[in-house]
Known about the structure:
Blueprint: H1 8-11, H2 24-33, E1 41-47, E2 54-62, E3 68-76, E4 83-89, H3 104-107, E5 111-115, H4 155-171, E6 176-186, H5 188-199, E7 205-209, H6 216-222, H7 226-237, H8 242-250, H9 254-260, E8 265-270, H10 278-286, E9 299-304, H11 313-328
Parallel strand pairs: 4-5, 4-6, 6-7, 7-8, 8-9
Antiparallel strand pairs: 1-2, 2-3, 3-5
Helix pairs in contact: 4-5, 5-9, 9-10
Amino acid sequence: MPAFDLPLPDLEHHRPEPDEPADFDMYWAAALKEAAHRDPLVSVRPVETGLRLTRTWDVTFRGYAGDPIRAWFSLPAGARKPLPAVVEYVGYGRGRGLPHERLTWVNAGYAHLLMDNRGQGDQYGSGGDTPDPHTALSGGPGPAVRGLLSPPDYHYRRLITDAVHAVTAVRSLPGVDPLRTAAVGNSQGGGLALAVAGLVPDLAAVLVTAPFLCGIRRSLELTDAGPYGEIAAYLSVRRGSEETAYRTLSYVEGVSFARRAQAPAHFGTGLRDTVCPPSGVYAAFNRYGELSGGAHPRKEIHVYPFNGHEGGEAEQVRRQLVWLESQLADRSPCDRHAPPIDGAAFGSGR
């Protein structure tokens, strides 16, 4: 696929006017308020994975409307003090899979929480374990169009709320330094991490590659690939519903979350990406932190001119590892004589 979006010099200055409803902040305050005073954790149970260098727990935490959300939580075996945490969000149609599939962050020395996607997990990977009890709401079968014509019922209101509560959950787990928590994701996962950056003011860092739900109107005009294609197909049948759908989508626009973010940010995009077009990524990057209230947060973006949705793959991950270490490194001396963090710290069968 040849480059199809704006030329790179134009992308670097691409700052479209925000497509943002006046009650954007009220919408999200209402969505997040329900679970604000509840214990975030439902259960934390150890899992035998066969891995000697990693310890893993099956975590259930409370998400949107108190719904139980599954996640894998992993620590490096023998960790002796609270570690910075990486909360990772997975792509569209994926679930959390199996606990041994995503080991990069825990192998780098971080506490790692991998959130399941409610009502997804049946398109790619090794599946998921979190149903969405609200799927009877109006809309098509795909997550991108569930509840699309009603802002309070839209799938991403629930999923983004889950993503925010995942940060609260990981901060309450033993072995985690709550002041050093990062949100990470690619594609849909990148869109969720960006939303978390806009909704969690004390996040320590955010890393997003090819984030979905950025520059949504333009992306729908540019591509029929992936989730945007599902939205286009849905509206091709429900003629005349476009503005209603656009209003719903404006509440989950990644550029609006980016404007409110305060954490240092690491972005990545492929210029031939037809799934999450680079103009959407740059719209979020160029406006990132502009409403943060003080000095703009540090940010950088890595561009892959001949790559599509796969972006920089392992090269991008290498850059993320180096960058995140510079943001979250613990520069205090390591207590080598402290005992390892014991499984008993998680309670018995919680």
